[in-house]
Amino acid sequence: MAKQQKRREDSFFGLHFDLHANEQDTALGADITEVMVNRLFPEPLVEMNAPPCVDLSLRRKGRRLLVHLANTAGMQVAPTHAVIDFV
Fold first, then answer.
1. What's this model's pTM, rounded to 2 decimal places?
2. How confident is the model at residue 33, as a pLDDT?
3. Whole-angstrom Cα distance, residue 29 to residue 27?
């Protein structure tokens, strides 16, 4: 039986980087500009103004858009993550 193609409203685009950075990775993302992001996402579904420890993910359930916010500033156990400072 042929697989049916999903309708656009039932589909999503995900962008995930699974890089396990270490102390030598000090310039990750430094060359990404606002212009580059605006070209990739000219009309974003959601805009967020929050500290970097707030993760946002979007999901669709039928015709509804679900927004998930996760606070990742919990207690840090690694000695290299003892302090969180927002500049």
1. 0.46
2. 87
3. 6
The gap from C-alpha 37 to its chain's centroid, in whole angstroms, comes to 12
CA distances from 57 to 3, 48, 87 (A): 27, 11, 23
The confidence score (pLDDT) of residue 15 equals 61
| Largest separation between any pair of C-alpha atoms in the chain | 55
Mean pLDDT in order along the chain per 10 residues (87 residues): 70 64 82 88 85 84 88 67 53
The answer to whether residues 84 and 73 touch, using CB atoms and an 8 Å cutoff, is yes
Cβ atoms 76, 82 nearer than 8 A: yes
Fill in the amino acid letter for 34.
E
Q: DSSP code of 5?
A: P
Output the six-digit token pair for 6.
């999903």
Report helix, strand or coil for 53. Answer: coil
